[in-house]
Amino acid sequence: MDVLVTGATGLLGVHLLRVLSKDADVSSIYALTRNKAQAQQTLNQYGIGQNKVVLIEGDIRFPSLGVREDELADLKKVREAYHLAAMISLSNNPEDAAMIHEVNVRGTANLLMVLRGCADLQKFFFVSSAYACGYYDGVVPECWMAQPKGFRNFYEESKFMAEKEIKKFFEDTDIACALIRPSLFLTQDHADFEKIKSQTTYCYCYIISKILREHALHLGQLRFLGNPHSTLNMVRVKDLVSLLIGLRRDLSSLEIINMVNANDIFVDDLLQSFKKGLPQNTELVFKTSLNIDHLNAIEQEAYHRTSVFSRYTLNQVLSWQTEKASKMKKELGIKDMTTKEIQRHFEEFDTLLQKKRQIHASRMT
User: 287: closest CA among 303, 274, 308, 298?
Assistant: First the structure.
């Protein structure tokens, strides 16, 4: 069968491509990309062969995905479609709102319009976000969500609105749909670290790590904006891929799954991951409110560079319904990460960053 994947060269996309390309019942994988040359480099980096993957240059922001007529005809023969493409930005800057909406909402609508013309399409998979719930009262259900009372940023809102596009598509067609809401991605593949250091939790940790190491000799107590009892939820990329592949076999109608970890991590535990290698007298603490005028220069730098993350480090504890996810995890042998495992993972990420900085510094001297 022929398959379409958007966001194929993103963090999740490359790992899904790697698995799909080895599947005997998949003949061609049409991978939508905005830049063929860069996409080819990514496929080479991850060792993804070209015998099945067909790179098609286009852009979900445009009608008909911006692809040529002959390539559009090929896309209309697919039997499965995976929509992974998204603009991942936690910005609350009004100037960024239009682009986030254009990619995540309008892009989804454009893709669905094309898929409505696919006579052979049987299954559609959409990767949303567990945080599309925004500021949600009660337990987030494994079904269509009610309108939240608000969102932390435009990204969350765009994912919620994209889900509404999926709902209409499902109600209008006979296509089986799987809507997966993963929490924050964790990757244990070191090849991913360079790609992911600009995204969500890794970006936050990258910024903190860089600030701490640049000022390692001058640290005492450093205060960061956040509630130490706030939590984040994280899942492995490889587990999300396993879930998607597992759903391929039996998807026949609608499945909405909250793919979250049974174990949250306190943001304070995450912050303490970066104490390794710092002077012993260094104290890293979260404060629920900070007066910018009373912060030292290092704290002010951290405050300004991590401000977009404060709505998560001050986050209310969220709860998700997980009956469907838990059942599938058990069937697929997926085990949730413990808090200690997550903490060790970010210690490893931090250590790798330090090694790269040392190598870079030695090359510069």
Answer: 303
Where on the phi/psi map is residue 6: left (φ > 0), alpha (ψ -120 to 50), or beta?
beta
Partners of 30 in beta bridges: 4, 54
The phi, psi pair for 54, rounded to 5°, reads -115, 115
Nearest to 11 by CA among 204, 158, 188, 178: 188
The whole-angstrom separation of Cα 99 and Cα 94 is 10
What is each CA distance from 119 to 76, 79, 219, in whole angstroms? 7, 8, 63
**Contact indicator for 302, 224 with CB cutoff of 8 Å:** yes
259 burial via Cβ count (<10 Å: 0-12, 13-18, 19+): buried
Show pLDDT as tens, one digit a residue, over the chain (365 residues).
999 999 999 999 999 999 999 999 999 999 999 999 999 999 998 889 878 999 999 999 999 999 999 999 999 999 999 999 999 999 999 999 999 999 999 999 999 999 999 999 999 999 999 999 999 989 999 999 999 999 999 999 999 999 999 999 999 998 999 999 999 999 878 778 777 777 888 889 888 888 888 886 667 889 999 999 999 999 999 999 999 999 998 899 999 999 999 999 999 999 988 887 778 788 999 999 999 999 998 899 999 999 999 999 998 889 999 999 999 999 999 999 999 999 988 888 887 777 766 665 556 55
Whether the Cβ atoms of residue 139 and residue 123 lie closer than 8 Å to each other: no
Per the structure block, which two tokens stand in for 194? 């360079």
Q: Can you tell me whether residue 71 is helix, strand or coil?
A: helix
User: Token pair of 312, please?
Assistant: 């998560």
The whole model's pTM is what? Answer: 0.94
Q: Which of 270, 266, 268, 257 is CA-nearest to residue 334? A: 257
